[in-house]
## 1
Amino acid sequence: MPFGRRRNRIDRTLRERGVPPEPQHRERDVEETTGPYDESDVPDDDGTPRVDLGALRLPALAGTELRVDLNQQQKVIGATLRYGDSMLQLSAFAAPRAAGIWDDVRAELARSASGQGGRLQEVDGPFGPELSGTVVVTPPAQPGGPPPQPVRRAARFLGVDGPRWFLRGMISGPAAESPEAAAVLEDVFRRVVVVRGTQPMPVREQLPLTLPPQAAEQLARQQQAGQQQAGQQGRPATPPGPPGPTA
């Protein structure tokens, strides 16, 4: 069963919290979810081990590798799951109570890709409408090498509207073009759990991500060691790279 906009699920979640749902603007014929999940509707017999990143709980499936992206302040700003040569980048955002944002986000992504020389078109996927095609990206610069040139890459954008959240996934690599190669990453996306929280947030603001305690301790040790070494050598410390726990 495809995961469309779970209108009925959103209403049910609000009723359970004693909050009357806002007026419904669109009708959907999907009543139950097979994932991705809100924290309130994960099946009791799910049995999937997950890495807790705060707003996202990501499945730890055999053969997949999880890497988190940190900014200069060492805050988690993104998560990527790799399977072979393919990757799934995940982000979750705040959304309105009564209406999803995936319809608008799809249109914006398609316009942005076209303006940069890529091309994305809407197709029906296992989670409802998605975008498939090419995007133009600039690879990271190599030390001492020439400036990198933009390249065109195959990509798929998946999106799911949940209760006050929106989950976006971008698949790249062979899985963006081959259904067989995409099967594992689609299963990963299907098993993601979103933890929205109760705090008010502006629509489209990214939900906060955090490192698991063990990874946070590892990063703190790396930072401390780097600062000590820099102090002994009389130079500024270089922030370490983000840890990449293997799932």
## 2
Amino acid sequence: MARADVLRRLLILALVLVVVLGLIYASSTWFLKKRYPMLYRDIILLYSSEYELDPYLVFAVIWVESKFDSRATSRRGARGLMQIVPTTGSWVAEKMGLKGYNDDSLYDPDINIRIGCWYINYLKELYFGDMNLALAAYNGGSGNVRKWLNDPRYSRDGKTLEDIPFKETKNFVNRVWHAYNRYKRLYRL
């Protein structure tokens, strides 16, 4: 056997070994818990309970929106852990009677999570408990969800969506449910 053939086979074997070890490492609980942390646990448990939300869902929304970066700011101006736009933050703060609110308050984890949980609960109630619709509205706006529900291309019954026409919103909903399932498998609350 030629030396080049031996080297080629060793290289292939080394690559297979790296892939197998990478898959084992990536699927380990330790690695997954590092990738899906439970930061701000006490605040999330407090407000998810207060606003009758599944805490795993709140962890998932935060993971998708900001990866737990309390200073995150989107190109559209959404702020903080749950990526709340200032207009929504102001509206929710007024509805909640939150004193001393200003747009920079959205960088405070306690205020951001409180407002985010209130808003998700509001959307959940608006859509009769349908969390897919609530999540679509959280990302794409409730006005758009209303339009989609009234459009037979996206909803046959006017109550559920068969398709979400905004790619970003469809990806958001799918990513939240993926993260939600990860959190449920990794942690017991």
